Amino acid sequence: MKESRLQALRAVLAEKGLDAVIITKYVNLHYFSGFRGDDTTLVIGMNDAMLITDSRYTEQAGQQAPLFEIVEQKDGLLSKTAECVKKIGAKKVGFEGNAIIYDYYAKLGELLDGCEFNTPLKLDTLRQIKDAEEIANIRKACEIVDIAFADMLTYIRPGMTEVQAAAHLENCMRENGSEGPSFTTIMASGVRGSLPHGIATDKVINEGEFVTMDFGAFFGGYASDITRTICMGKADEKQRKIYKAVLESQLLGLSKIKPGVSGKSVHEAVQANLAKYDLAQYFGHGLGHSLGLEIHEEPRLSLKSTCEALQPGMLVTDEPGVYLPGWGGLRIEDTVLVTETGCEPLTKAPKELIELGVR
C-alpha cells in the first residue's frame, strides 16, 4: 500500500489538530492499509499505523498491510483498539463521522477515558482522485462488463424471465474475472423500464419491449458500472425517438466532462438537451456519480453537486435516462475517467439502438 495515502491522511490529522484517527469503515480499511478483511480497525497516528484484528486474519493482514503493525485482539476489538490508542500516547482522536456505528462510538468514548474523542472526519474525500493502480483495476472491471454485455446479446430472448437473464449476466461476469457484482443487478423490461432501479423479477421478457440492463463488476476491490438498453425485436417510432434523445444526451455529457468544469454544469447541459424533446421532466435523478471501492462515491454530476471542478484521475458515470410510468423507459450509462484534456469512457460496449433478431 502506498505511503502517500498515509501521508495525505496525516496531513488531515495535522490540520484538525489530532494525534490519531480510528478507522472502522471497510473500504477505508482497504484504502489506507491494503487489507481486505472485516472485524478490524485501524489506529493511525502521526508516526504509527496499527491494524487490529483477530487470529482469523493476522496472517492475511501481515501479507496485505506491510506498512502496519499487526495487533491481534483476543478479548474484544474495541477494547484492544482503545489500548492501542493509549499505547501511542494519543490524546485527541478523530473518527469517521459518516461511517462509525453509534454503539461503537459510544463504547470507544467510554474506553478512551481521558482522550478527546469528539472530532468527526470525512475521509472519503481522500479517495476522489484515483492513482494508476486504482484506474487499472477499474479499467479491468469495465472490460468484464463489456464482455458480459456482448455475451448477453447472444443469450437473451423473449420468453425468459428477468431473473434468468440477470443470473446469466452475473455468471458471465464471474467467469471473466469479477469478484462479484458491484451492486444488485437491474434488469427491467417493458413497463418496468420506468423504474430506474428495477431489479430483476419473474416478469417474462416479451417481443417488442425495451430491456434495460444496469450492472457492474468488482475487480481488485474496485467497481465498474454500465447501463445498456436494447429492444427485443423491432422498435416502434416512440421507442426510436426517445432512444435517440437519450443517446444524444449521453454523448453530450461525455463532451462536457473535462477538468475544471463543475458537476452541476454537466448535469444541467444534459437536462437542457432532454428538455428540447420535452423529456427533462422524466429524468429525475442526477446525471452521474463517482465510483471506486464503493459503487457510489463523490464527486457527483447533479444539481446538488458540491464539485466545483472535476480533476484528472476522477471517475464519474454519465447516465441520463427517461422514465415514463405506464410505458417504460431507458437509460444509457458509461463509467468515465477524467483525463488531462477531457475524458475517456472506460466502458466500450456499443450504444446505438440494438434491435435483437432484426436484420
UniProtKB/TrEMBL annotation:
It comes from Selenomonas ruminantium. Residues 137-340 form the Peptidase M24 domain. InterPro entries: Creatin/AminoP/Spt16_N, Creatinase/aminopeptidase-like, Creatinase_N, Pept_M24, Pept_M24_MAP, Peptidase_M24B, Peptidase_M24B_aminopep-P_CS. Residues 5-117 form the Creatinase N-terminal domain. This is Xaa-Pro aminopeptidase. Keywords: Aminopeptidase, Hydrolase, Metal-binding, Protease. It comes from the Bacteria. GO terms for molecular function: aminopeptidase activity; metal ion binding; metalloexopeptidase activity.
